[in-house]
Amino acid sequence: MFKKFTHGCVVLVQKLMPDPFLFCIILTFVAIVLAIPLTGQGFPTIIRHWGNGFWGLLPFSMQMALVLVLGNAMATSPPISRFLKFLASIPKTPAGAIVAVTVVGYIASWINWGFGLVVGALYAREIAKTGKRVDYRLLIAAAYSGFLSWHGGFSGSVPLQIAMPVAAGAAVANTGGAVMQPIPITHTIFAPFNLVIIFALFILIPFVNAKMHPKDEDVVLISPELLKEDEVVEKKPVTPAEKLENSRIVSIITGIVGLIFLILYFQKTGIRGLDLNAVNLVFLMVGILLHGTPIRYVRAINKGIKGAGGILVQFPFYAGIAGIMAGATAVAAGGTGLSLATVISNAFANIATPASWPLLSFISCWIVNFFIPSGGGQWAVQGPIIMPAGAVLGVPPAVTAMTYAWADSWGNMITPFWALPALGIAGLGARDIMGYCVVVLLASGVVLWTVMILIGQGLLL
User: Average pLDDT, whole number, for the chain?
Assistant: First the structure.
């Protein structure tokens, strides 16, 4: 029965889900249509909000493209490739392979979300190369499902941001003045309710993914030949330029300088410094060292770039949607002062009680996440709304912040935005994995909704 349900979800998504580029365009139209009547702003004003926000994710787009390209280049280096081959040889059954990929992706994402996105997909691709009869679509979906642990882990945008020190008399950033003292991670990442979610999903999601593996006649395989790296016949360097390109000394010096900087950097920042820039620098320097020579690394980079196209063309449209969601016209200028994100958040806050707030806040943040899938970007828009609302209801600020965090993680399961790096590595489209992700969404939703209800009843705090 469960396999039939999963198969139905996969078939339905493949028929109905458009390409991710068209998906974000449709979301743009939906946001425009909703914003005009709900915020009282005219079409020209909404379009200005869209245009003003369009390039708002440009630095982040570059970071995400580098996650894909640099991570892929590091993984194709001989030492890492051999290690991945060893790991890929451990699972002996299709179910074991699915569980292994899920666990690796889940733990890696809990440590750092950028690291998790790349590692899980690379491990899944390596298992596919072994020729095991494991459904390739489900392998990549399993790797991506590990991304659920992101906001509950060490690189969660919100728990880290609200733990940052603030000046005397200043409010914590993006809390609308509701939080005047930093909230330590013992109240968020290591809170009992968060640990319950982390461990429950760690048990549930690998089990669900393994059970989704299709019957043998329905398994979709990818030929290992298609995943093989092109062999390059290296010529003996003759000219000074060729000798420099093939110099191991250049790579060693470059890599060592970068690693020395990283050591000094982490001595100062600790685990909190493991942001996207640091992850990319690790990928870059380790990749340079492991490939041995500059020209080998350049070839590896060139191979990985082709998978970054989706990120480069789609992220600006998501930034434009965020501009629509956050755009408001001040009352003094003849507007309502309300943005679309504010309208949605207020609708749930107005009907909430202290007991229902965790769940209702979770649902409102999940809805907004459709339109602003960037965790930090959504928090900048919605944090100043939900944090004061939770304070008025007497709900601990750490609870409100983490309901937002988990809503964001949950929404990622059916939004192609974050899946693009993994899809670029795998060479798949969003519709290939999103049917499986819908099942993960439903299964994890049972855990998340239950915990939110229990928190509202004063339990797990």
Answer: 89
pTM: 0.86
Place of tokens 């459709």: 370
More confidently predicted of 201 and 231: 201
Residue 3 CA from chain centroid, whole number: 27
**DSSP code at position 247:** -
Name the residue among 345, 353, 338, 358 with its Cα closest to residue 392.
353
Task: Pull the structure tokens for residue 200.
Answer: 């429950």
Which amino acid, one-letter code, is at 177? Answer: G
Residue 63 CB-density burial (10 A; 0-12 exposed, 13-18 middle, 19+ buried): middle
444 touches 204 (CB < 8 A): yes
Residue in the structure block whose two tokens are 């192609």: 416
DSSP 279: H
Nearest-5° angle of CA 215, CA 216, CA 220? 95
Answer for the pair 212, 138: CB distance below 8 angstroms, yes or no.
yes
Q: Provide the 10 A C-beta neighbour count for residue 228.
A: 9
| Rounded CA separation 274/269 (Å) | 8
User: What angle in degrees, to the nearest 10, is found between the helix axes of 340-349 and 309-326?
Assistant: 60
- Torsion, Cα 60 282 146 422, to 10 degrees, reads 60
* Band of residue 226 on the pLDDT scale cut at 50, 70, 90: low
The single-letter code of the amino acid at 170 is A
Q: Which of 38, 43, 56, 34 is nearest to 317 (CA)?
A: 56
Mean pLDDT, residues 217-246 taken together: 77
Q: Which residue has the tokens 């009680």?
A: 353
Domain spans of the chain?
2-234+309-456
User: Which whole-number Å values give the CA distances from 358 to 196, 199, 275, 377, 426, in the listed order?
Assistant: 15, 20, 28, 21, 37
9, 120, 446 from 435: Cα distances, Å: 5, 18, 18
Q: How far apart are CA 418 and CA 64, in angstroms?
A: 9
- Provide the angle, in degrees to the nearest 10, between the axes of the packed helices 78-89 and 276-291: 100
Phi, psi of 324 (to 5 degrees): -65, -45
| CA pair distance 440, 438, nearest whole angstrom | 5
Closest by CA position to 176, among listed 431, 389, 395: 389
Cβ 11 vs Cβ 435: under 8 Å: yes
Name the E strands within 152-252.
none
- Per-residue pLDDT of 17-73, as tens digits, reads 888 889 899 999 999 999 999 999 999 999 999 999 999 888 888 888 888 888 888
